[in-house]
Amino acid sequence: MSHQSGITANEALRKKFAEMKDGHIRVVVVLIEDESLVAKGEHQAERTFNEDFDKMIPPLIQKHRSAFYFVRLDTISELSGHNWLLIVYIPDDAKVRERMLYASTVATLKREFGLTYITQEIRASSVHEMTSNSFHQHVRSQAAPPPRTMREEEMLEIQQREVTADISIDSRHQTLQGLSFPLDENVIEAIHLFKKQNVDYVQLEIDHEQERILLAHSESISTPEHIQKCSPDNAGRYHLYRFKHTFHGETISPLFFLYSVPGHGSKIKQRMLYASCKENVIDTIEKRYGITFDRKLELCDLSDLTHEHLFQQLHPEAVASTGKAAFAKPKAPSSRGPRRLVKPNENSDEQ
After folding, report:
1. For the chain, how many structural domains are there in total?
2. What is the mean predicted confidence (pLDDT) over 100-105?
3. If you write DSSP's letter for every residue of 289-329 in order, what string do you get?
4. Are residues 243 and 124 in the same domain?
5. Distance separating alpha carbons of residues 89 and 97, to the nearest angstrom
6. What pLDDT is recorded for position 97?
7. Between β-strands 8-9 and 36-44, what pairing exists: parallel, antiparallel or unpaired?
8. Disulfide check for 242: which of 176, 200, 307, 328 has CB 3.0–4.6 Å away?
9. Residue 165 falls within a domain, yes or no?
């Protein structure tokens, strides 16, 4: 059982913790002074996590003094918002009392900031460990499988051989169930804003060279006709759209996932790429970010993207009742007379 130091954040630091949740701050340094946790330095976010980390952290480090470093990651949690990295820096040559004081205050610091916001934590003892490269090595080591015994390695090799073995020409093989490319940090930010209803339209594209899903366009307010104009007619796109309209006197905002790949203007390889990635993109957005789409539509021609078309997809019964008669099967020609049921001749076998 660990012992707590009893040191807590002062009022200024508590206010700073609340401000950090807005997503504008990249780095905050916290020290222990006069038996309290205090903020001693900060930087606003400028570029990506890696670039800001290597630019901002080194000047803030006091080589022989312990400190806590909060660094905002570029990832966003659907429940708590921006994720944070906590670095507990306690140099090897620090005094024993200082080492014990900082080590016993970590739990209190995390609780005051909010445990759900801290998704990564690193313990560092030298300035050489205070780099973005060290952080990524830490993440990779966490994701790596645990070491296996020789017997476990042999069993794993046997299982892999069984999967890939060619038994006969009719043997079944594992097949690729679609491609999965990671979402760029700008896409994650846009999805977060879309969920909070700060934007109504997000357009995504695939960068096949980087193998990533990138943000192509986003707008706070948009119409189907405007989406046509800002979408290319020779390349595929994914669209997240909040279709605001009135139905039975009530304003509603159903969510559409639109998949547009022009049939004639785009290349076959591109159409296959967008088709292969589509399900994984939808699955990631719905499961990881908690966004449920009311309709998922594929558009081969962008001219089909109109207010009327989307309205019909949601309310087909309302469109049918406005005067467009449903297709009815034509009656049989009258010259043929009434239809008769002809029974087989029961005595045909006897003749």
Report:
1. 2
2. 88
3. H----SEEEEESSGGG--HHHHHHHH-HHHHHTTT-PPP-P
4. no
5. 15
6. 86
7. parallel
8. 200
9. no
Q: What is the pLDDT at residue 328?
A: 42
Please state, in angstroms and rounded to a whole number, the distance separating the CA atoms of residues 246 and 244: 7
Q: Which helix (H) or strand (E) holds 77?
A: strand 67-77
In 3D space, the residue among 32, 130, 142, 144 whose CA is nearest the CA of residue 86 turns out to be 130
Tell me which residue range forms the domain holding 109: 8-142
For the domain that residue 41 is a member of, what is the CATH number? Answer: 3.40.20.10
Contact between 286 and 293 (Cβ < 8 Å): yes
The per-residue pLDDT for 77 is 80
Among candidates 243, 240, 261, which has minimal Cα distance to 253? Answer: 243
pLDDT in the model for residue 245: 94
Which pLDDT value is given to residue 11? 93
pLDDT tens by residue, 7-53: 899 999 999 999 998 888 999 999 999 889 999 999 999 999 999 99
pLDDT of 351 strictly over 70: no
Q: 3-state DSSP: the chain helix, strand, coil percent, rounded to 5?
A: 35, 25, 40
The answer on 200 and 128 residing in a single domain is no
Task: Output the six-digit token pair for 196.
Answer: 């909070």
**How many residues does the structure list for the chain?**
351
- Residue 166 forms part of a structural domain: no
Residue 147 lies in a domain: no
**Cβ neighbours of residue 152 under 8 Å, at least 6 residues apart?**
none
Kindly state whether residues 132 and 254 are assigned to the same domain: no
CB 274 within 8 A of CB 206: yes
**Rounded distance between C-alpha atoms, residue 168 and residue 173, angstroms:** 11
| Any domain includes 344 | no
Residues 6+ apart with CB under 8 A from 133: none
Q: Mean of the pLDDT values across residues 155-172?
A: 52
Question: Quick count: other Cβ atoms within 10 Å of Cβ 84?
Answer: 23
